[in-house]
């Protein structure tokens, strides 16, 4: 099961959030291995008894910078191949406030304390990240444009024109990922510009299933 982004705020009690959390609890109970990014991590957190809140520091928009694996994360197959610090596509206004019992923190950075985690609950296991390994640079640019008002209100940009100029550079790098001048200007390296490296977490999850079948993610500590 794969869960990605969502406009839902898991700290709000609505029919939509209740259905989403109930679905995730059913996924855990079924023993179906699951992976999530961004809101996916938040859904799994709340379903297992943790909590989510609006970002305490700032919206993380465009890219999450200097994500650092914890000691547990350095040994965990979800982050296999990731260096000691890396960037990743990210855009979110909510974050995990507290992981549930049975969870392991795998990575964080200065802006968002929980950037990656494993959650075990009711016989199931979830691997998740707060960032978006699944989206390309063109999707990052599109997300910034859609949320330009929010970025200006958060003082991350002076105007919508600033957001557009930044998005255009990201679009240009998407079109020509080998352009070192654009990567330098945006402060990005191959962890973002190389699609195979950017997809590391998803590939690692699928490879665990391929090697060990349905029990793959559950067998990490066995």
Question: What does the model show?
Answer:
The protein has ten helices and nine strands. The chain is of the alpha+beta class. It folds into two domains: 2-134 and 199-217, Rossmann fold (3-Layer(aba) Sandwich); 137-192, no CATH class. The strands form two sheets. It has a seven-stranded mixed β-sheet, with helices on both faces. It has a two-stranded antiparallel sheet with strand order 3-6. Strand 8 (116-121) and strand 9 (124-129) form a beta hairpin. The two termini are 22 Å apart. The mean pLDDT is 94.
- The first-level CATH class of the largest domain is given as Alpha Beta
Helix content: 40-55%
Beta-strand segment tally: 9
* CATH superfamily grouping of the largest domain: Class I glutamine amidotransferase (GATase) domain
Distance between the termini: 22 Å
The helix-strand sequence is EHEHEEHEEEEEHHHHHHH
Q: Widest sheet: strand order? A: 1-2-9-8-7-4-5
What's the CATH architecture of the largest domain? Answer: 3-Layer(aba) Sandwich
The rough form would be described as globular
Give the integer mean of the pLDDT values: 94
Return Rg in Å: 17 Å
H/I helix tally: 10
* Tally of separate domains: 2
Please indicate the percent range of residues in DSSP E strands (runs of 2 or more). Answer: 15-25%
InterPro entries: ChyE-like, Class_I_gatase-like, GATASE
GO cellular component, one term: cytosol
EC number: 3.4.-.-
Domain Glutamine amidotransferase: 17-137
